Amino acid sequence: MNKTPYRLVVLHGWKHDKSKWDGFVKSFPLDEVLVFDLPGFGDEKLVDAGWGIPQYSAWVRDKLENLKENNVILLGHSFGGRIAGYIASERPEWLKGLILYGSPSLYRPTTIIGLKIRIAKLLKKMGFSRKSADEMYPIFKRVVTFDQTKILPEIRVPTLLLWGKHDTEVPVSIAEEIQTLIPDSRLITMQDAGHNAHFDNPNLFHGIVKKFIDGL
């Protein structure tokens, strides 16, 4: 008996767009994976500079529900992971699984994140930011400081936490804490991989994702 067809929906990271997932998409059969640009990235125009994770999540959810997608597995990378986690906490009926990949879902300030924020503020004050950067800066601040500690326990679908062991942007310690908050979750770390593990070892990354999907 064949399994009910699924749709793997990928939400890209900050400063990325759907093109960064071309290789991954090609590793799956046709039409099993859906990737699109989030507002303000790639070809998708920014809707409002006042947006944060809740607004991006509503946009993605509306898009998927308008497409009448069912049996969805959300894969969110970094910034996209925050969005995917937020949507999962709302428990839409069409969501069957969740993959949080290098997702800074918990606000635990690190030296690197703090440095990035200080540099961004300095560049803005000195007038070096381009128009697009100026538009995204308020969103960046909201995204970085958005903490999902209280909503992650509301997630009720099987969840894979997929991390590069050498991720310096979102350390594995964050993933370990997330695992204690999401009831049905497990953590897999990829050796010799960092924050962009799907670039570092695409074959292994695909294999881990496919095995998780097959087990649903």
Q: Could you list some keywords that capture this structure?
A:
Rossmann fold, 216 residues, alpha/beta, 40% helix, 8 helices, six-stranded parallel sheet
Can I get a quick summary?
The chain is α/β, with parallel strands linked by helices and 216 residues long. The protein has 8 helices and 6 strands; from the N terminus they run βαβαβαβααβαβαα.
How much of the residues is beta strand, in percent?
15-25%
Radius of gyration: 17 Å
How are the strands of the largest sheet arranged?
Answer: 2-1-3-4-5-6
- Major sheet summary line: 6 strands, parallel
Named at the architecture level, the CATH assignment is 3-Layer(aba) Sandwich
Shape verdict: globular
Structural class: alpha/beta
Gap between N and C termini: 15 Å
Question: At the third CATH level, what is the topology name?
Answer: Rossmann fold
H/E order of the elements? Answer: EHEHEHEHHEHEHH
The CATH homologous superfamily is named Alpha/Beta hydrolase fold, catalytic domain
The CATH class designation is: Alpha Beta
Total domain count: 1
